[in-house]
Amino acid sequence: MTQSGFSRIRxxxxxxxxxxxxxxxxxxxxxxxxxxxxxxxxxxATSLSTATISRFVKRIGYGSFREFSLSLAISTSTNNTxxxxxxxxxxxxxxxxxVFSGAENALKATNEVINDDxxxxxxxxxxxxxxxxxxxxGGSSLVAFNAYHKFLRTPVQGFQHPDYDIQVMEAVRMxxxxxxxxxxxxxxxxxxxxxxxxxxxxxxxxxxITAFPNSExxxxxxxxxxxxxxxxxxxxxxxxxxxxxxxxxxxxxxxxGVQMGDKTSAVVDEIxxxxxxxxx
Length: 280
Prior knowledge:
Elements: H1 5-12, H2 18-29, H3 31-34, H4 39-46, H5 50-59, H6 65-72, H7 92-113, H8 116-128, E1 132-136, H9 139-151, E2 158-159, H10 164-173, E3 179-183, H11 190-201, E4 205-210, H12 216-220, E5 223-226, H13 239-259, H14 261-277
Parallel strand pairs: 1-2, 1-3, 3-4, 4-5
Helix pairs in contact: 4-5, 7-13, 8-13, 9-13, 10-11, 13-14
């Protein structure tokens, strides 16, 4: 799906500084106005030069201001409470609605950010790999385990373990016939980056799932699948991002399962029969 410019700015926001940060905040705080602005009008509004605006646009991945301007019209998101900032004054009903809205908006924004062709490529790599490793530290290890658990229902040979040392050991045993799915919300976790470097040194194809496509982990990956979610005050571990990443995993599982067809069905049937025996 084509990506909204607003969603892309949000995914880069924590990595911007100086003039870039100023431009980003101006755009997010004036969403209706900026959709109709020329580059000169935006420069005047932010008290910056057109060259600075142009560099910002290219830094977040657009070839020209025209391309960026068109992307702003794709969808008009809400204000900076997009993922439902929770306040102490909120009653129980408001909190519940904000949590559910945050999850819903995270999925919608991720659908705007993520590239269908990249998802298809990732699925092809996984389906043809000798072995697939699912890597993540801390909260991201939950997504990695979920991926491993799902892909057990396919012919894919997988690996997952929450311990960092064991992840490193597995990474150095993988080869260029293998694929690694590396999950990190921030894309800045030092342990995850170290695992990524071991994988690369052994020629392993790496797919990163992260909310920050300009992070170090994303820059080092062969393919990036970007989720879109913002952290809010109470939910500091970004539960919305977790939901978005789980959905990316589910999409990959479905694509691979369909691609492998009858082989997947045979594995599912055998697993179902084995589990059913435990319930007698």
